Fold this sequence. Notes:
Blueprint: H1 7-23, H2 27-34, H3 38-46, H4 53-63, H5 67-82, H6 95-106, E1 109-114, H7 125-134, H8 145-160, E2 167-173, H9 175-178, H10 184-197, E3 203-208, E4 222-226, E5 235-240, E6 243-247, H11 250-266, H12 270-283
Parallel strand pairs: 1-2, 2-3
Antiparallel strand pairs: 1-4, 4-5, 5-6
Helix pairs in contact: 1-3, 1-5, 2-3, 2-4, 4-5, 7-8, 10-12
Amino acid sequence: MTVGTTRTKRRLGRFLRPFYERSGLKLDELAERARCSRQTASRLFTGDNLPRYHLFTSVLTVLGVEGDDRDRALEMWEIADAQQVRVEHADRLPSPYRRFRMDEAEAVRERTLDTVVVPGLLQTAAYAEALSLGNRKHWTEAWNAKTGVAERRDRQELVTRPENPLILHALLDEATLHRMVGGRQVMAEQLDHLVAMGRLTNITIQVVPLSAGAYGAMSGPLFLLDFPEEDEQDAAYVESLAGMATVDKDDDVVRLSAVWDGAAAVALSARKSVDAIKAAKAKGP
């Protein structure tokens, strides 16, 4: 199953929320006047759903959205209705991770910080399969290592597509180069793959050396996404044992961006990072 993006729907919801708040209406009152369900109205503001056109225009009328604001709202509705980003296996992905995949598919730049394993966008198939096997106790339904590898391969097309590839700036803790995942051969291939991916013009890989000591965000992976629209805020995601989590507050996104900048400041240069990766391969386990 593939599903469409929700980011443009969330943009529309954020645009309309001030009109709703100024209206003084309760959600039930709005739904009754617009002749739609309470759930339809609620999901419009959260960006979880896009109502049909006639219901949407009815909501605009009830909220008193007029003139240029109405034109802008209708334009945003059309964009949200037309824009679809395909995410394979979406129906079998956890909801927070599915939202991340949708946002990532629309981003123009991604900054990551990984402290435990090589990030997904830079993993070989064998490395990804070994990680999936390590999580086999947590599989649900028909999800398995092969499906995990296929999902990862679909995601990686973002950085290798010929037109407008995703710009990736990945910070890797040095520990990720030495953690044995899948055995000697798998790790050797993975390290070679990092060097090869680092040669792509849209990818920058920097290693945060062990000698840097403690730095921010050492507790888990961090993802920062930049979008093409000037008025669109960056998106931040963090990952823990509980899974992927969205960072919704703007102040927290700014703080996490500063954390990433701090880690980048103590990381090796891209050239020296290649040397560190090659040294890790030569040293072996």
